[in-house]
Task: structure prediction
Amino acid sequence: MRIIKIVLLLTLACVLPTLYGQSRLTDEEIEELREEENLDKLLESPHKNFGKISGRFLNRRNRGLEDAVKAVEARLKTTTDGLDKAALALLLTRGKTALMTKAALAMRDPLMMRDLPPVLLPMLSDAYAALPDGADADTLRQSLVRETNRLLLDEGAAYLKDDEKALLVKNYLHSPRNPLKGCPVDRLVAIYRNLGVVQELEDKCKAAPSDIPQEDDLLLVMRLARELKGSAAALPYADEMLEHKSSSGKPDDLWLLGLWDVYADEPAHALETLPRHADRWPMCRLILFDAASRMGRGDRKSRETEWLAPYMDHLARKDEAAKTPEEARGLKYKRTFASVTILVNRKIHEGVIYMGRRTEEPALEKDERSRDYWEIIVAMARAYAAMGMRKEAAEVYGRTLQCDHVLTTIQDEARRFIGEE
Result:
């Protein structure tokens, strides 16, 4: 574990300059630029000179890095401008991170890095609260959110003093700007735990599903409930959203992907609840095929007939946007490939193979010019391979070598696989 942490630390040290927008210059070129510039002069307008200061003076390879960090820190103590304060806080974050990285590498102790959050987070939170609204502040605000969230996820954030945690909760977590909007739920929970206020998220999960009118809020509470208490606790919120959408929502499969994880963990409930929604929301049939497979309901062929065949019929419907039969077939392949991708990501190999076979059956010679067609076929080959059916996989891969319209990368993959047989 210690070796892994050292490797991760070295990786961070390599990529950190790129994340901060450092120019791709040699050490000698940076040294020449540094000599041409005056750091004190640049610090008179830090938000305008952010890139120069960051790339030239706060570079980890700069022999004068420690002095540069001291200069930035001194300027931060005296500035009153919100934009400059935000820029200086970000610059100081970079400088102190570079110094700590050098020290941790020298000591071969990656645990030293957890000392950074208690040092940097109060400063970043204060800068975020002082940052004015407006287009000029948007880039700085995004950078502050990114850096603050990164540090809040670090285990070192748990070592903040109680009063510092309280200020972070007030100035950052509870900010009307909602800096954690869109944050993945697992990270959101980790941040709240590190700051000792996870109870706030647990309280959200006490609300009855019917008392949450907004769909976005309902989806968030469902995900929080699953993360904090498990899928069984999230089921009532998933069911409420499904009922609400089925009665008033516009057809859109994207939100169903948010419910799938919950139903995947509770397949018996899915088999009981989802069938009545399948006509309005065809993607329910994919979830039901997955649930039936997990529960061992029927054999593979019966599951395909009951759930996947109607779904494929849905994908093959005539597309009103298509002006020609060729356009309609192209759109069908696009829809099929999108569905295959969902199954691939969830490792539902039997479903991928079925969709691949159904795609092959009606294929015409001109269909072989479609990139989406071949992406479906190669996904089927990979699914065969994942299930240990190497002979079937080799046969499918072999087809890709017989067509001039297949991507070279796919053909190379096929040759490698067949060569291993």
Notes: The radius of gyration is 27 Å. The chain has a mean pLDDT of 87. Residues 82-107 form the longest helix (26 residues). Residues 381 and 396 are 6 Å apart (CA to CA).
